[in-house]
Design a protein that fits this description.
By secondary structure, the protein is of the alpha/beta class. About 35% of the residues lie in helices and about 20% in strands. Helix 13 packs parallel to helix 14 and helix 16 packs across helix 21. The protein is elongated, with a radius of gyration of 32 Å.
Length: about 600
Amino acid sequence: MRLTRICIKNFRSIRDLRDMRIENLQGIVGENNAGKSNVLRAIECFLSSGAGGVIYSDFNDPGSPIEIEAEFGDLSDQEKKNLRTYLIGDRLILQKKIQASIDERSSKTKIESEYHGYRAEPVDWWLSVEKVPVETKTSRPDWEKVAREYGLIGWVRGDDGKVTKASYAKGLVRYLAETDGIQYDEPQLGDTQALGLQQNLLSNLPEFFLLPAITDYSDEISKRSNSTVFRRLMSDLADRIMRTDPRYIEIEQTLEKLRALLNPSVGEEGQQRIEALAGVEMQLHVRLKQLMPDIDGVELEIAIDEPAELFSKGVSIKIDDGTPTDVLAKGHGTQRSIVFALLQMLIDSGSASRVGRSIMLAVEEPELYIHPHSQRMIYGVLRDFATVKDDQPEAQPKGQVIYTTHSPAFIDIGNYEKVAIVRKNKADGTMAYQCPLGALESGDERKDFKLLTSFSIKHNELFFARDCLIVEGPEDEIAIVATARELGRFSELPDEIGLSIVVTYAKGDIPKFQKVLNAFGMKYGVLLELDNKGRDHKQTAPILDLLNGNRIAEIESKLETILAVGRHFDDVPHAKRFFSDPENINDEIRGIVETLLPAR
């Protein structure tokens, strides 16, 4: 199962973010304070029990509820069985509502939540707790009689041997999940909580890990908390890796013996509890009875963790880089790398074949504290976790990854559909912009685009720009930068005004970039050399058709002609030498660059 779509209303900076598509590997980019992290926090809230940590200040409008609607797809056969009643086709659509109110007695703020979803009742009335009273025409049906008549008694009898409405409902959940061929009505949106209990619902949804962008990663690795991503990964890995060891049973037996030595009525015959603890209980009982005569006895119970919990709570890591040192004393980069190394172990341990909940990993700024040369390696870890290799098309992804980033190393423009650009304005709050899956119409066009952008991460920079320019060759870029400096539009680089320059290396590739930029709603300018072929030429016409109201500067012939170079630039060094002399920058190139650059 994976999250395929999310809608968020009234959460922090998000007023109404609708139908944000979520891919297996989903990057979220945008300027600081645009609301990227709020998207991740909303997903975390949805997949958490209760109010999911929401507080009063999280409501954009405290007078209205927070609404988070999530759609899940790619369900396994077992997940489809477990959730068959709640599916629309092969999709699960659920909504979580969180409401803030004031408690009349205490005058304190109260945060309440509930899940709603589509529910389809079985066609056979005896398989529906809602339909039984209607069919039997009584508000208090004889549940045992119905169960016996339709062969359900073995499924719905309670622990006490009786059949009640509660035991009938509980047994039906198991019967419907384990029985094939059940026919269902059309799903209807329920007014009550989906699946009845939140915990039952959450146990079927993906397990969520959020790796936050915190300044000190010591908090993540510290032993004080067993709920951080680091501790949960340690627990998961221990449980799955240790169980493969033939001697794992020795750990279980040792812990069981320890429980028997420390607790009453736990051990088998011959494994008696140590007498000292019984003495402690007796002395405590005597002293308590003096204070409270009606106390009949005192019993101490000492909890012994399971093996996975031992790893979650008790592991410390020492790094030997010449001097063995606890990881908590290392730098933030080393600490964060430890977490990514654990994630890679999780990938290698075969989580794709695990039975149980799927994994969703959310990462805020994975590039933090990571050396630039290692960033693409970290991106590879995330990508491997969320994708299937071309030579294994039958395999399932090991999990789903959603991350925010400010680094081009973590974005691939060739996979533009896996990127969402988040922007915020006063009128609408946080909004997400995505490129439709079919932006590049033909398979060949998409293949060519991926090849074009696969040799450098420079093209990825356009996702982080407020505006960009599309040019044909590197000499064009040099001309624009040199002229813009001479005009005083920036001192050194276009980054100063949030501008990115995209070099396509061929006029025929300009439309591919235009289609992607248009789909994301990005502003841009195009430097177009007509090469004396006119505006109707087969390479030129598509560029003009796709302009979409954006800026364009047309050169009738070529750049070298208006600069009176007399020939093509020999190469990039030739162009740099030419533009290093301000005397070579004339009024015509100044006008072209002013047309291309965004308004002051």
